[in-house]
Amino acid sequence: MRPVHLGLALLSAALPLFASSADASSLRTEYSVTVRGFPVGRAKLTADFADGHYSIQFSGGIRGLARIFSDAETSAAAVGKLANGRMMPIEYSHLWKEDNDTETVDLHFAGRRLTDISLNPPEGHPERYVPLRDADKADVLDPVSAFVWPVAAVTPDICGRTIPLIDGKRRFDLDLSFSRRERFATRDRSYSGRTVVCSFRYRPVAGHRIDGKKSGTITGDGTMEVWMAPAGNGLAAPARIQFGTRMGRVVMTATRFEAH
Fold this sequence. Notes:
The protein is built from one helix and 15 strands; from the N terminus they run H-E-E-E-E-E-E-E-E-E-E-E-E-E-E-E. The protein is 5% helix and 57% strand. It has 260 residues and is mainly beta.
């Protein structure tokens, strides 16, 4: 069930956010994942910030009846430093396992510049894809390092940004803008309150097909949004994310949201 594979991969490799400038804080979130309204999996994020450093881990997998079609599991992690309220990634790793296939990605950074990429297996037929130039590696974030935003307050202003992301194969931007405010509550009531809803647009930069075929799993179809909730200590984090893909709309909704 390749569409489920792509949907869960996006949760760990294409969701945009930033990290905190707080001296010490932690975040524990759990999410349910649906595709076209059908439950297909769960995901979990843990993030710790202390003494100017951060460590973030993400994991997700197929659940329920969807396992009949796929047994996909994914995990990703990032470590780095915080400087002047900005994320400075050092290392990022990503593991994808499905049936008998395994894919790994390892990235290394110096400041906000990507310095090394290791893909196993390597990308096949690289001539078919827009090449990654040296300029495309500057001032970028890995997907996990971009998962929590530093904010003075959760207001519409937090949506006015473009986030440059790189996942090892693709370099793309996510252009955000304010949409509206919404109330949100987790299933376990660990969070209940207002969120700021940012709409976003996916813009490929490099790594997509030259001929335009399968230029990106994210498409412009349907409403593409991230609902940001206060996470304490000058942080905001996603309570809900939804986006269009070639398989239909993927929605990730927080069922647990605990910040300390």
